Amino acid sequence: MSTDAQQASTVLDDVRRGEILADVAALRDSFDAGTTRPLEARLAQLDALAAGLRAERPRLLKALELDLGKSRTESLITELGVVSQEIAHMRKNLRAWLRPERFGPGLMLAPASGQIRREPLGTTLIIAPWNYPVNLALAPLIGAIAGGNTAILKPSEVAPATSAALARLVRTHLDPAWVRVVEGAVEETTLLLEQRYDLIFYTGNGTVGRIVARAAAEHLTPTVLELGGKSPVFVDAGMDLETVARRIVWGKFTNAGQTCVAPDYLMAERSTLDALVPHLKDAVAAMYGRDPRRSRDYGRMVNQKHFDRVLALIDDDKAVIGGTSAADRAERYLPPTILDGVDWDDPVMGEEIFGPVLPLLAVDGPDEAIARINGGEKPLTAYVFSPRPEIEEQFIAETSSGSLAFGHTLAHLASQTMPFGGVGESGIGKYHGRASLEVFTHAKPVVKKPLRPDTLRLVTPPYRGAKRAL
Ligand code: NAD
């Protein structure tokens, strides 16, 4: 651990330190006592979480509006709705997914039987980010509960109203023997990371991801890192550009672009870009009106620091929609902005944008788009709109990304049947639905061999003469 981190952890007063350590110890004790193992108890906690979500709905919606200017409908779809569906899916399938999976252990052991038993890992730590602060805190928690684990949940301090609402939800509706919330920022997280867990599930940026991984290495704790990156879009010639534009605009400007799988930048041939721009303009106007600031459906940057960061990426000379003149720092309002004629070395291409700015870049076809993707870090998602199946196959075969989506943006994030996660710089590990149960359990092979017939005598010394038999 760095000296900075050590100093940070000493900033907490002794009382707060004691509370946090007591929370971790209490969860370890209840795990050791077997509280979280019975299937019925897990189902009951999932039910309690679903009930809590319903009961706390008004508070959560208000908090999301305060923190991110999220509209009620957007919050219901992308936050509370996704979590409720994830609970329902887990609830429905958990019993079957926990059934032992049989396998044949092979010739060396025959006769023998084998089964995979999914066992809980223990006490887990879930560190959540601010951009979908309900969804990205509770979706992993569903996996932790379903897997029979206890969990410390650390919401993001960057979305403080939602952090408080989540703390209340957990305190009021869940069993403190299973789940406890620790609110706070770097100091609290640093102290939490000094403790030993059986899994750390972190969602956020790669810099902190590395801090988490380093701390986890100290105790050989497995980690899931759900990170970000620049998710590209390629639009091939010959598509229905009106629909394509609508799908891209929705994916980009939902939550004011603060989505880990938002299309980060868009590549197409020059002629396709020229044809696409009017449709992009129409789609923005259709979704958010002529003045998106007045739209109830258009969100805000989470804070002024992020507002300033994204504002600095906008080159007004290249803006075909939006730009800095309509931006309002006090309101944290950045208009939907589309930049055309962007160069690969422009600042906007130097980092994950994570805001409502879409750069358009001309390429000479799919081959260049693939080469550009492969020239950068592996993205969380890549999006391709192409009428040609062979081009889709080429993207599957020649690019690497956490997931690859044809014909839409963003919506796959809500799928309970699709494992979600990154690869390389965009993350380690997958979750959602069955993948959540898998990542929050150990798949333990159990092998059983009868004493008779005593076939293992064949492989015990002395080996003299064995050659002949082999
Ligand atoms: P953030 O600032 O809220 O940080 C995430 C968490 O890390 C918070 O709980 C925070 O308290 C903690 N943290 C911050 N600094 C720390 C430190 N020095 N030591 C220990 N803990 C610390 O969120 P963020 O990182 O700004 O989130 C945005 C990033 O997350 C983007 O890169 C985005 O793409 C990525 N993201 C990924 C996914 C995914 O599912 N893969 C989802 C959402 C966001």
Automatic annotation (TrEMBL):
Any single GO CC term annotated in Swiss-Prot or TrEMBL for this entry: cytoplasm
Record-level Gene Ontology MF annotations: aldehyde dehydrogenase (NAD+) activity
CDD domains reported for this sequence: ALDH_F3-13-14_CALDH-like
Keyword NAD in record: yes
SUPFAM superfamilies: ALDH-like (SSF53720)
GO biological process, any: aldehyde metabolic process
Keywords annotated in UniProt: NAD, Oxidoreductase
KW Phosphoprotein (keyword) present: no
Active-site positions on this chain: E226, C260
Positions of the Aldehyde dehydrogenase domain: 21-445
Similarity-based family: Belongs to the aldehyde dehydrogenase family.
Name of the protein described by the UniProt record: Aldehyde dehydrogenase
Native source organism of the sequence: Brachybacterium paraconglomeratum
